[in-house]
Design brief:
Elements lengths: L1 E5 L2 E5 L7 H8 L14 H9 L8 E2 L5 E2 L11 E5 L3 E5 L4 E5 L4 E5 L2
Antiparallel strand pairs: 1-2, 2-5, 3-4, 5-6, 6-7, 7-8
């Protein structure tokens, strides 16, 4: 397990190979600076504050962050993931896609 520390949040780098760790971090893109444990807002609310609108999910995100959608030929596995106790989970995928998950709602969008 590899950890990438940004803004007091530990991001799990999801790869079994040490030599791919840096590639996975770079390929996932920059972690938005607005994600912080200092905020009292949930991770979804922190994202909404920055994006303004988050499209609802079309598909399923498993407990391990795998994005499954009927139109996708293959499932999309996350490259970075974080869980902030009581504030939700975030999964970052190849190409800048990001999913925000909590007990009540799930959103997926693309970070630009």
């Amino acid at each position: 397990m590899f950890i990438h520390h940004v803004n007091d949040i530990d991001w799990l780098v999801i790869t079994a190979f040490e030599e791919l760790k840096t590639l996975f971090v770079e390929d996932a893109g920059a972690i938005p600076s607005y994600f912080s444990t200092a905020s009292e807002l949930s991770l979804i609310d922190q994202a909404k504050r920055s994006y303004g609108y988050l499209p609802t999910l079309s598909g399923v995100i498993t407990d391990t962050g795998i994005f499954q959608r009927q139109n996708n030929q293959d499932d999309l596995s996350p490259q970075l993931a974080c869980v902030v106790e009581g504030r939700g989970r975030v999964f970052i995928y190849h190409g800048g896609f990001v999913a925000f998950v909590d007990d009540e709602q799930t959103f997926i969008t693309r970070m630009d």
